[in-house]
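Fold this sequence, please.
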Amino acid sequence: MYSFGIYISSFILKIIALFNTKIKRGVTGREQTFKTLKESITIKDKTFWFHCASLGEYEQGLPVFTELRQDYPDHKIVLSFFSPSGYEIRKNAPFADTVVYLPLDTKTNAKRFLDLVHPELTIFVKYEIWPNLLKELKERQCKAILISASFRESQSFFKWYGKLAKSALFAFEHIFTQNEQSKLLLEKIGYKNASVSGDTRFDRVSNQLLQNNTLEFISEFKGDNLCVVIGSSWPEDEKLIVKYINTLANKTTKFIIAPHNIKQNQIENLKRSIATSCLLFSEKENKQISEFQVLILNTIGLLTKVYTYADIAYVGGAVGTTGLHNTLEAAVFGVPIIIGSNHKKFPEAQAMIDHKGMVSISNQKELNYAFDLFITNKVVRAEYGLNNYNYIKKNKGAVIQILKFLRN
């Protein structure tokens, strides 16, 4: 029934692709997977296979991937994505020899994919579980691990109807979980080869402090002023934030908005809604950028560096239902963070709230209060920021545990 469902899904996706650009990229990209593998991998090659659902899982796996690249320079690394958003942004990942879309999880595709890749080691990230692929890995006795795994009791692995998904977990030689709760859930279904390593994202964001994060145009824009960075915002976030900006009497505080969606019409609507001086990234050439109060980044790839300049951060996605974006990227720079209230699936958010590094808001009044508090109270701002920095520092070390297991 599962395999039949995959075939039906494949047919439906092809129809949707006629009307949806993102789905079309995935359908078209998957059609090239086997051709790409045939051209780039030979039967004599030693290979590792790393799989990520999308961009977030890629960022979690990256510290492990890059270390293994250094340990095994003669191996070819195949990196696969399921989501177009992950593939399109990281299709030129420097550590990988080949980047492809993961084919749909049919038995035929699983056999064909593994025939071509023949990995010595497979690493899946978080909870990307594909039963046919994992069953085939197990039958071939291929070494496979799952890292940064995060489970909830509501997932099918732990329900009476989740036998197939549950059995797929046993294809992993070892599972490294983010927390003790996930490990206990695995033990309840009889999986014993699990250990709590923590979340590799803490290592990933900590590495950002070692990079050169200077952006001259941001330095010019900010000057000596207080700067609020709004990262990965959605329209639901922006509605509240713009209203705050438009009613703020203090015109010296600078705002940088990095929307999640940078489609032209949405960016133009956002700019028109802002009553104070506002500049797009794409318009900054030959402009006195320091004269503007709001800068909208209608580009991608800069946010992790931009957080360097933040005195206060707002991370989007939790006002609506799209899902909270990465708060750790801002926290590592020691700044207080504001988020929406829909963050139950993100334990790190609740932890930072409990440690007084983050504030959750659910309406305009609460947003205004949080912004006013951090903008006007330097002591509170510094306290919350330091708490976030210490939280990141305390939770580093997952990568060391995973690599120790792999190197033994």
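The two ends are 40 Å apart (CA to CA). The CA atoms of residues 30 and 101 lie 5 Å apart.
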